[in-house]
Amino acid sequence: MDIKVLGTGCTKCKKLEELTREVVAEMGIEANIEKEEDIYKIMQYGVMRTPGLVVDGKVVLTGRLPKTKELKELLTQ
Where are the domains of the chain? Predict the structure, then answer.
């Protein structure tokens, strides 16, 4: 699984990266997690509000922090 956390470095963006890493470890998912902070690359995904989450090339979340349960669902769909 390829996961990208999109964000320019704000508190919510950092928290989403931390939460994503925790959930992936807890669930035993094999994933490559990257943090993308380049605003131009973020906009190429069509994301105008951060944080954003991209799973296997598909934007699954934008503009907010999910609860842990929701993040688990997003990663297992």
Answer: 2-76
**Can you name the residues that pair with 32 across neighbouring β-strands?**
2
> Catalytic residue at 10?
yes
- Is 26 one of the catalytic residues? no
Active-site residue identified among 13, 16, 71, 75: 13
Report how far residue 49's alpha carbon sits from residue 33's, in angstroms, rounded to the nearest whole number. 20
User: pLDDT tens across 22-72, in order?
Assistant: 999 999 999 999 999 999 999 999 999 999 999 999 999 999 999 999 999
Q: Which amino acid is at 65?
A: L
* pTM to 2 decimal places: 0.92
2-76: CATH number: 3.40.30.10
Which member of 1, 10, 43, 48 is catalytic? 10
